[in-house]
Amino acid sequence: MPRFSPIEILVLVVVLAAAFTDIRSRKIPNWLTLAGICAGLSLNTYLSGWGGLLTSLEGLLLGFGAYVLLYALRAMGAGDVKLMAAVGAIVGPSNWFMIFVASALAGGALAVILMVWKGRIKQTLMNSLYITSELIHFRPPYARRSDLDVKDPRALNMPHAVAIATGTVACLAFAYI
Predict the structure, then answer these.
(1) How many CA atoms lie within 13 A of 164 on its CB side?
(2) Taking a C-beta distance cutoff of 8 angstroms, is the pair 7, 1 a contact?
(3) Would you say the pTM of this structure is higher than 0.90?
(4) Within a domain: 146
(5) What would the pLDDT profile of 45-100 be if each residue is shown by its tens digit?
(6) In this predicted model, what pLDDT tens digit does every residue of 136-167 receive, in sequence order?
(7) How far, in Å, CA of 126 to CA of 132, rounded?
(8) Local structure of residue 156 (DSSP, 8 states)
(9) Cα torsion angle, 24, 27, 32, 36, sign
(10) CA end-to-end span of the chain, whole Å?
(11) In angstroms, rounded to a whole number, what is the distance separating the alpha carbons of residues 83 and 29?
């Protein structure tokens, strides 16, 4: 049976708690993401000194920077941005990137399931074409179509923390195969 490192345990606790709260309330609490950031910075500093703190800060900035762009396009909630910043602070930039890719794949799979379950295949494909066209022309998709804003009640949303947790668990499982 594999022994998990303190970093692995911390990231699992944070993403699983976030997924649970996101499913229940459609929110990721600030206390959870802030605690994850502080614990990630502290634990990495304790385990690896100033180099660990620097790696943790790089992961924090990478996670925040990548997701704040999605937030600016209104494709992601603020809790998701803070959660991925916390994940970055815990695991560092190289491991964050692997979790990001795995979370994107998990999110895509979950989105397809949701789209089929809700019977919105045609609408989702049309929305995807519209979003691509708007982005190619450097226009925010939500500007002319408010239903493409993640906060709009007509938008087909899913708790993204579930995709982040799934991607994180998959990365950890893959590391132990």
Answers:
(1) 32
(2) no
(3) no
(4) yes
(5) 999 999 999 999 999 999 999 999 989 888 888 999 999 999 999 999 999 999 99
(6) 888 888 888 887 777 777 776 789 999 999 99
(7) 10
(8) -
(9) positive
(10) 11
(11) 9
Question: Are 60 and 101 part of one and the same domain?
Answer: yes
Which domain, by its residues, includes 164?
A: 6-114+159-175
- Same-domain check for residues 64 and 146: no
Report how far residue 73's alpha carbon sits from residue 150's, in angstroms, rounded to the nearest whole number: 9
- The b-or-e profile of 104-137 (16+ CB within 10 A means b, else e) is eebbeebbeeebeeeeeeeebeebeeebeebeee
Residue 36, pLDDT > 80, answer yes
Q: Which of 1-15, 46-60, 107-121 has the highest mean pLDDT?
A: 46-60
Q: What's the Cα-to-Cα distance from 114 to each of 87, 106, 151, rounded to whole Å?
A: 25, 12, 17
User: In degrees rounded to 5, what are phi and psi of residue 149?
Assistant: -85, 130
- pLDDT for position 131: 82
- At which residue do the structure tokens 């493409």 appear? 148
Q: Residue 1: inside a domain, yes or no?
A: no
Looking at the structure of the chain, the number of domains it has is: 2
DSSP letter at 3 equals: P
d(CA 57, CA 104): 22
SS (H, E, C) 107-120: HHHHHHHHHHHCCC
Q: Is there a single domain that holds both residue 101 and residue 133? A: no
